[in-house]
Design brief:
alpha/beta, Rossmann fold, 12 helices, 8 strands, globular, Epox_hydrolase-like, Epoxide hydrolase 2, AB_hydrolase_fold, hydrolase activity
Length: 341
């Protein structure tokens, strides 16, 4: 049987909903299967993405009998975008998601939660802050990092993880300033660069680099990323132009907020293990989150499965069929009714 077609912008297979939780409006996509659903899957995107980033996964999970909830995360798309960095802590945003489930899905006490990129970071923390709400947790590309007992700022982190040097640009003001000054065309060029746009032959275009970030001044002459259609790139540009880049890039400014909000988790002790069934899918060619970063994470879980796909950071799109297979197998396993004795 052929896989269902990926979502298009304004696809009739999903509903667009909004809900006020903890003083913030969240927009989310809701996909319902035909007939009763087996369970609910909550999907959390990263940067520079949207709920639409799960366009290949939502129809597949829907066809497999699952209800899917995919929010625009805080700062993105149709969701509120506070300027204050304090709103972007992983504990606070986990509480937002729990409140969203309470408000609109009161009959779903437990869900499977999955994420990619920053969404991957958040779902690990959600499973720690709200373990009673989770049947299973999975992350694509983003390994689990345990709470830390000592704070390290981003400049210190990049000394150990040079693949995070681009985050120095994102945590600064250049991205917000340049995209605001250039308007939607600049936003579109910025997104195209991050989605893998390559230089046009004979031009002075330069691609994104994990060492230096986005080379503003050299991104107008990039070919359109092969991972996005013109319609999809236009949709991303429209959504990112709604509130600008301050909200999305606030996730890169939240290290201190996250450290403070993780103190309770750190206090559990170094031997604590996450009980929730978990799946980590690594991407073999992810320059920002290389597979080596996941070494040792198994020690923090009672039940961790691993998968991998041959893809760049954009595994959800680039290796969608294999990602979908691994996710569906995991979701089926953790939601299957236990046999009674």
């Amino acid at each position: 049987m052929s896989a269902p077609a990926k979502l298009t912008p304004n696809d009739p297979r999903v509903e667009h909903r909004n809900v006020m939780v903890r003083g913030k409006n969240y927009h989310y996509l809701l996909a319902k299967p035909e007939g009763p659903h087996k369970a609910t899957v909550l999907l959390c995107h990263g940067f520079p993405d949207l709920s639409f980033g799960w366009r290949n996964q939502i129809p597949a999970l829907q066809a497999a009998g699952y209800q899917v909830v995919a929010p625009d995360m805080l700062g993105y798309g149709g969701t509120d975008a506070p300027d204050a960095v304090e709103a972007y802590g992983s504990k606070g945003m986990s509480d937002d998601l729990a409140a969203l489930l309470d408000a609109d899905f009161p009959t779903e006490p437990r869900v499977v939660i999955g994420g990619h990129d920053w969404g991957g970071m958040l779902v690990w923390r959600f499973a720690e802050h709200h373990p009673d709400r989770v049947l299973g947790v999975f992350s694509v590309c983003t390994p689990y990092v345990p709470p830390q007992g000592e704070f390290y700022d981003l400049s210190q982190v990049t000394q150990v993880l040079p693949n995070f040097r681009y985050q120095l640009q994102f945590a600064g003001d250049e991205v917000v300033k340049r995209t605001a000054e250039g308007g939607k065309p600049a936003v579109r060029q910025f997104l195209n660069c991050l989605w893998g746009g390559r230089p046009k032959e004979g031009s002075d275009g330069k691609p994104f680099s994990v060492d230096t970030g986005v080379p503003f001044g050299h991104i107008a002459d990039l070919e359109t990323s092969r991972l996005l259609s013109d319609e999809e790139l236009d949709f991303y540009a429209d959504q990112y132009s709604r509130n600008g880049l301050r909200g999305p890039t606030n996730w890169y400014r939240s290290r201190r907020v996250n450290f403070d909000e993780d103190r309770g988790l750190y206090a559990r002790g170094k031997d604590f293990k996450i009980q929730t069934p978990a799946l980590f899918i690594s991407a073999t060619r992810d320059a920002a989150l290389p597979e080596a970063m996941s070494a040792g994470m198994d020690a923090h879980f009672v039940n961790l499965s691993r998968g991998r796909v041959d893809a760049s950071h954009w595994a959800l799109t680039e290796a969608s069929a294999e990602v979908n297979r691994q996710i569906e197998e995991f979701v089926d396993r953790v939601t299957r009714p236990k046999a009674s004795i």
